[in-house]
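Hi team,

Below is the intake form for Phenylalanine--tRNA ligase alpha subunit from Candidatus Magasanikbacteria bacterium GW2011_GWE2_42_7. Please confirm the fields before the structure is written into the shared record.

FORM ID: S-0412
PROTEIN: Phenylalanine--tRNA ligase alpha subunit
ORGANISM: Candidatus Magasanikbacteria bacterium GW2011_GWE2_42_7
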Amino acid sequence: MTTVMLKEKIENLKKQFLAEIEKIKPSEEALFELEKRYVGRKSEFISILKNLKNLTPEERRQIGELANNTKNEIFEIIKNKKTEIESGSFDAEKEKIDVTIPGKKKSVGHFNPISLVRRDIEDVFTSMGYEIADGPEIENEWYNFDALNIPKDHPARDMQDTFWLRSQTNADGTRKDADNFSMRSQTSAVQARYMEKNKPPLRIIVPGKCFRREATDTTHEHTFYQFEALIVGEDVNVGNLKFTAKEFFSAFFKQDVDVRLRPSYFPFTEPSFEFDISCTVCGGKGCKACKWAGWLELGGAGMVNQNVFVSAGYPRNKYQGFAWGFGLERLAMTRYKIDDVRLFHSGDLRFVKQF
Ligand code: FA5
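The structure came back. Fields below:
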């Protein structure tokens, strides 16, 4: 073979090697196999080097140098690949991208309709300048009842209506806490708590969990949500209450809603009202959803009783305010046409996934 042919052969072997190492799936075994074939004892490189003796000294120097350099390059490339594998920096499986594999579908969670309703309520009220306030779910007798002008003998305080918590006792049988605690039965409990720390004018809503000892049915749960609205200032009247309610319900139901107040009784408001809105299904004409009444009963409301202001530390007759309390479940039931309140806390994913 002439020196030209030998040079070409060495260069072709190198090209062939480079093409092959690009294609193989790098592993210890595959690299060992490649090394054996290209630069091993029985490889063409070695036979070229062995046959140098047949060349002139000048040719031997040229070809010998080229062959040795190429052989060392090949060793170097194989060594580097081996180090990559050992250090784990090259993972063929990980680096391989198969663009034809279909994507993985992410499963997306759902808001419970109560959360949806609560968020909407908060949006409407905050846009009207109300603050969102909070209070404890375990409440003492003062805030849940006394401060709200609910007399000691009121039936709401009975074991049948309220979940009382057993008071902790010391070793000698005396009570550890001075207060009687219960699971709060209404968000109105936050009224005095908030007013004690804040002076009028104030506007708050209090969305939160309430608990009552109920025999549950399609409209009653032992654990449910209410939201309270409270506004206090020096010149607040029933007209403001009715206007605010109409604005809120129209925004919430995204349709024009009428509001009706009927006389009622709550110890913490004077006068007190039951609160109805025009049926959102028939617009007030009468249908199955409103039991042909044209109105839907939603909650209680009234002008804050002056005794409540006094309990909160305000002077009597200086301020006026209105308050209302609604059930979030009842609102959600009306909006989404849900016929059983027990579905909300049932944990049934088939229910939640519809929203
Ligand atoms: C109250 O709880 C008063 N605190 C409301 C109030 C606030 C009046 C401020 C005046 C001023 P009532 O017990 O009616 O009132 O409950 C209000 C609403 O809570 C009901 O209309 C209903 O929507 C909801 N609710 C009451 N009990 C349950 C229950 N067991 N399950 C589901 N929702 C309930």
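SUMMARY LINE: The mean pLDDT is 90.

Thanks, M.
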